[in-house]
Amino acid sequence: MDASSIVIMEKEDGILSKEVASFKLEKGLNLVFKVFMEDEILNLFLTIDKEEVSDEEFEHIYEEYDFKYFHDKGYEIEEVDGYYNPIWVIKIPFSNEHTLMESIVNEVLDYHINELERVYNEF
User: Fold this and answer.
1) Could you tell me if 101 and 85 are in contact, meaning their C-beta atoms sit under 8 angstroms apart?
2) CATH number reported for the structural domain that contains residue 41 in this entry
3) For residues 4 and 38, what is the distance between their CA atoms, to the nearest angstrom?
4) What is the DSSP letter of 8?
5) Domain count, the chain
6) How many CA atoms lie within 13 A of 58 on its CB side?
7) Between β-strands 76-79 and 88-93, what pairing exists: parallel, antiparallel or unpaired?
8) What is the rounded CA–CA span in Å between residue 56 and residue 16?
9) Where in the sequence is the domain holding 83, given as residue range(s)?
10) Rounded Cα gap, residues 39 and 55, in angstroms
11) What would the pLDDT profile of 2-42 be if each residue is shown by its tens digit?
């Protein structure tokens, strides 16, 4: 059986201390690099669905990925350096309303999947 959920742990002083939520994902679990909550912000790290990319493709993905959706929603997004494949962290204000947060995470993943497909098709 394939996994279909993520568990959100709270990070305090650099240590994951307790579970604060879990969300069922409609799709895209393989794109979640890691996730945690810190200072009432959900830090959702997303990556790509390819094992390896060339240096040229790596640069193309970073250059062409459109952040506008995230900015329009009021979320922060940053590229994360130091990894072989592209990784972004999306920072989303955390709400204790489970259904809302689960919906937001699924919406973000849906956008990410579609955006990767668009960027791949341009390469």
Assistant:
1) no
2) 3.30.1460
3) 23
4) E
5) 1
6) 14
7) antiparallel
8) 36
9) 5-122
10) 35
11) 568 999 999 988 888 899 999 999 999 999 999 999 999 99
Express each pLDDT in 34-74 by its tens digit. 999 999 999 999 999 988 888 899 999 999 999 999 999 99
Q: Which residue, chain included where needed, has tokens 């279909």?
A: 4
Find how far residue 84's CA is from the centre of its chain. 16
Which residues have CB under 8 Å from 105's CB, separation 6+? 6, 23, 25, 42, 44, 92
Q: Which residue has the tokens 């390819």?
A: 50
Give SS3 for 120: helix
Residue 37 tokens read as: 């909550």
Distance CA 16, CA 11 (A): 4
pTM of the model: 0.92
Structure tokens, 86: 């592209």
Among residues 40, 60, 39, the alpha carbon closest in space to that of 50 is found at 60
- Angle 86-91-92 from CA coordinates, rounded to 5°: 135
